[in-house]
Write a structure and sequence with these properties.
Blueprint lengths: L1 E2 L3 E4 L6 E2 L1 H14 L18 H9 L3 H16 L7 E2 L3 H10 L3 E9 H10 L8 E5 L8 H11 L8 E5 L2 H9 L3 E5 L6 H6 L4 E3 L2 H8 E2 L1
Parallel strand pairs: 2-5, 2-7, 5-6, 7-8, 8-9
Antiparallel strand pairs: 1-10, 3-4
Helix pairs in contact: 1-3, 2-3
Length: 219
């Protein structure tokens, strides 16, 4: 068993785990603390994926100052338990174990602050499969996926078109992969539609962890 790619980069939310209950409840809390009406939970799924300051401005009509304040409210609720209102997708732990055993580097590339990401990976018992965890910082130094990519490449400078793949569920993951000329897989079990993933230029699509395994591992 060998890995197809030397570097296997994974988004977290909507790719490794389903974080919808914790994220949407934390957004509800932030909107309520901000004095805004709280829409139905289903309307808040769009907050999963983009940078949260952007989302509060785009979807709740906040200005920059209000959005940053709402992010603080969000993190109050999220850090108090929302990060564990989460479920790992079926087959993901087994896939990560096989990638590790097959000799590939497994790297997290998330827009979530690294401290929270590490806690989530530990909670699900999969941190041991990761060679590196890259994400945003609590002071918003790496809010965009391209910032996370730049951070990863500073540590692994040989990342390139022929040896790297980015796995994610939203256009932000796919567009970042294209910007840095690496291959991409869009997963269909997350929060981005097939249309979104295709329009952003995903090289491959996978509807399950089993399909991901066929794309990333050679028997």
């Amino acid at each position: 068993m060998n890995t197809v790619f030397k570097y296997n980069l994974f988004d977290l939310d909507g790719t490794l785990t389903d974080p919808a209950p914790g994220i949407t409840s934390s957004v509800m809390y932030a909107l309520e603390r901000s004095g805004l009406a709280v829409p139905p939970r289903e309307e808040l799924y769009r907050y999963i994926g983009p940078p949260l300051v952007f989302s509060f401005k785009e979807y709740a009509g906040m200005d920059e100052e209000a959005a940053v304040r709402a992010l603080g409210f969000y993190r109050e609720r999220f850090s108090a338990g929302g990060l564990f209102e989460n479920e790992i997708y079926p087959g993901i732990a087994e896939l990560l174990e096989k990638l590790k055993r097959g000799g590939g580097k497994v790297i997290l590339a998330t827009g979530k602050p690294e401290e929270f990401a590490v806690m989530i990976l530990e909670h699900f018992g999969i941190l041991k499969y990761f060679d590196f965890v890259a994400g945003n910082t609590l002071d918003e130094k790496r809010p965009e996926k391209r910032d996370v990519f730049n951070h990863i490449i500073s540590v692994f400078p040989d990342i390139g078109p022929d040896n790297t793949v980015m796995v994610g569920d939203r256009c932000y993951d796919i567009l970042a992969a294209k910007e840095f000329s690496v291959r991409s897989v869009g997963v269909l079990f997350g929060f981005g539609s097939e249309e979104e993933l295709k329009e952003s230029g995903a090289d491959m699509l996978a509807a399950s962890a089993a399909e991901l395994e066929r794309l990333l591992i050679r028997e």
